[in-house]
Request: fold
Amino acid sequence: MTSTLIGRQAVVIGAGMAGLTAAGALADRFEQVVILERDTLPSEPAYRAGTPQARHVHALLFSGQRALGELFPGFEQDLARTGAVPLRAGLDVRAELPGYDPFPQRDLGWVSYALSRPTIERAVRRRVESRANVTLRQRCRVQDVLATPNGEAVTGVRYESGNGASETIAADLVVDASGRGALTLALLQSIGRPLPEETAIGIDLGYASCVFAIPDDTATDWKGVMTFGQAPQNSRGGLLLPLEGNRWMVTIGGRHGDVPPGDAEGFLTYAGALRTPTIYNAIRHAKRLNGVARYGFPESVWHHFERLDVFPRGLLPIGDAICRFNPVYGQGMSVAAQEACLLQRLLERLEKDSDPIAALAPAFFAEMPTLLETPWSVAMRDFAIPETRGQRPADFDITLKFGIALTRLAAEDPAIHKLTSEVQNLLRPRSVYRDPALVQRVLAKMAEA
Ligand SMILES: Cc1cc2nc3c(=O)[nH]c(=O)nc-3n(C[C@H](O)[C@H](O)[C@H](O)COP(=O)(O)OP(=O)(O)OC[C@H]3O[C@@H](n4cnc5c(N)ncnc54)[C@H](O)[C@@H]3O)c2cc1C
Reply:
């Protein structure tokens, strides 16, 4: 079936996960899709300046894997071909939570892949570049989004190309996947429109990561480890996941000043002071393959574009430009891919609309509260740490107690374990916890406590 085109040219700013997946969604509906990326993109998986977070563990949730498969049929096989390590959900990653060292390991019935962020990104880029009407222009730094003099519609972007020349490109639709959304916010400011309200959760997270060769004599019943500290006293945590090429990536971190140092010895010392010794014991004699990379993440932020009354026609922020989450929960790439699937569905739904491009952003923003509710509620767990800044929900203490009792139930009952993992993987909405029978069981657990 051929799709109806709704525009001549769409321009996507940024070739990160949000930009690439959005381009995949747009390719059926525009004659041309042009992606402008400020970086030089390596042909092999490698780190690059524009995505410094790629030096840290990037877990792809099962919802993200599924969304990528919806956008690029057969994508799971692409992942397998990269050498990504299959992980049986609930079984292959040892989860160490206070009170459960480890949490019961059970096969929950799905397999997800562990691999490095550069390799995931390159796999997606290959799919996007295989589309004949998609062009990726590297070393093109977008400087401004251009609009009509009255600011009602976006007309294209101005960018600096690799040779330093300032150029413009016309677009029926501009998708801002530049990560921070700064270009969208600057446009709104320049045309005198209100900026979206934002909700922030201040966490002052400090990350440090290193890659190790998996030692030959490793004999473990796990392929990965997650270790969490005992909140509120201990905010330190660690994550060890396998990567393609028989490697482990280890990310350790803490908050509000209790952050890991940037040297190899300090990294090991910090790992040795995690609540459990599993990660330290795994890496202390392992060969380190790179230097320590650090990252500071001050806050999760949600820009509420859905609350704006008016928005320029032909502009759409996506991915981190709308909402950035505490990376500990591994949600950003999956949410970006889900947003691209939403974009694809909306383009199909709106193709018969008299002005699909004008209708697109309002329809997209209207879906954001539903799409973001569950991942944002996961990010709100950070209020368990007293130094966390932001609007603590009035019922947070009861939510916390509910969560603790639900975890106890999940440890005992494989069906509840599966349900909570499905919510954590964004396969189901958090509203499933409102099921009356489940609520009764959780309340009974709370009463026992
Ligand atoms: C430390 C850390 C760890 C993380 N771990 C995980 C994880 O485990 N799992 C997970 O799912 N997510 C994780 N994330 C989040 C994830 O990286 C992002 O949410 C996801 O990649 C979507 O980002 P994006 O594409 O919107 O933006 P970005 O990844 O920031 O990409 C933006 C792109 O736009 C380009 N760009 C920016 N400005 C311009 C411009 N003016 N002109 C042209 N190009 C421009 C950049 O070079 C870049 O390529 C982590 C984030 C951090 C910070």
